[in-house]
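Review the following:
>
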Amino acid sequence: MRHTITMLVENKFGVLSRISGLFSGRGYNIESLSVGETMDPAYSQMTVVTSGDDLIIEQITKQLNKLVDVIKVTDVTEFEHVEREMVLIKVKPKAERKAEVLSLAGIFRGRVVDSSEDTYTIEVTGDEKKIDAFVNLMTPIGIKELVRTGKVAILREGMKK
């Protein structure tokens, strides 16, 4: 089963390396990883998506909690939470499909962030299913390039931590 784990960590040199080393050293795969500063620049929030049964996830969280620079680890999969990804897709539609691309981007609440004579770069944010659906619709139109972020997650207000 896939699990989304969030971590509050000290914003220091080598923290990401130690965390990714913990995963690779034990043979666990990181499916998605996102890191960014919090409101306090001394700390960063990490979101990791990994797979495993409950025992494996318990082992991962225990090992993460043992790392000195890790302040808090939460498997948000167990709680009500909000998660999002972002994708930037550069499409090169034929002239007769340009209006369709713009219409589809609007339906998915995407926005054109760059354009040229032949291409549109579209940003779409949402859950994994929404991103997958948009990518699937753009594929036959002609994706020239695609960049996708990792998942970010936050607990809903009032949820146990």
